[in-house]
Design a protein that fits this description.
Order of helices and strands: HHHEEEEHEEEEHEEEH
Number of strands: 11
Radius of gyration: 16 Å
CATH class: Alpha Beta
Largest sheet: 8 strands, mixed
Number of domains: 1
Distance between the termini: 6 Å
Number of helices: 6
Helix content: 10-25%
Structural class: alpha+beta
């Protein structure tokens, strides 16, 4: 199983798929016109997330989370662990590790970083999100923060890489607005769309063909 991790580490050191992969999972109604979704304003805020791999049942898994219901824009959406940068964070990677420890209860010292994906700008919250990739050498015990995490969503890699789990549907967002023909991942009985799907889109392109 370590061959997969080594191959992924090497792949992350090469040019990334970037926006071309992200756009495949971007709703046209949220794009704001050709390429404008990828223009980042100077007053943006910084955030980081972590795609955390770990072994379970002889297969690598990816840990996601469903956020609890709230008045915020991303209420009940499935996402990576992560959040906004704080002044004491040393860098963007430190933000991702700190947030993962706070939300999942996994000590950051146990997580080894492999690299990073292409950043994603989220207009609705004005965050420029920096996605990192990390792994654990053994299956973790989760201690989720109930204020931040409604449910831990564990996704086997085989499910993530199955093209049948990429679909499209109508999705209703806050305010009763209905988005048509939205691309999403259907993973572990969850609908994963938006910025998280865009990051997963790039990640899956990276992983295609890697040795398990």
């Amino acid at each position: 199983m370590q061959k997969f991790i080594q191959s992924l580490r090497e792949r992350l050191n090469n040019p990334l798929p970037g926006e071309s992969a992200q756009k495949k999972m971007l709703s046209r109604q949220l794009s704001g016109g050709e390429n404008s979704r990828f223009k980042v304003p100077e007053n943006h805020k910084k955030a980081s997330v972590l795609a955390l791999f770990y072994p379970k049942n002889s297969e690598w898994h990816l840990a996601l989370m469903q956020r609890p219901e709230s008045p915020y824009a991303h209420s009940r959406q499935v996402s990576f662990p992560g959040g906004g940068a704080e002044e004491h964070d040393l860098d963007e990677a430190e933000t991702a590790l700190r947030e993962t420890e706070e939300e999942f209860g996994i000590p950051k010292a146990k997580i080894e970083l492999l690299g990073r994906l292409t950043h994603v700008y989220i207009p609705v919250s004005n965050y420029l999100v920096h996605p990192f990739i990390g792994f654990l050498i053994e299956e973790p015990e989760f201690f989720p923060d109930s204020n931040e995490v409604e449910e831990i969503v564990e996704v086997p890699i085989s499910q993530l890489l199955d093209p049948a789990n990429r679909k499209r549907k109508e999705i209703e967002i806050q305010g009763g607005v209905k988005l048509q023909d939205v691309p999403y991942f259907h993973l572990s009985d969850k609908v994963i769309w938006g910025a998280t799907a865009m990051m997963l889109g790039e990640l899956t392109e990276l992983m295609e063909g890697l040795e398990e």
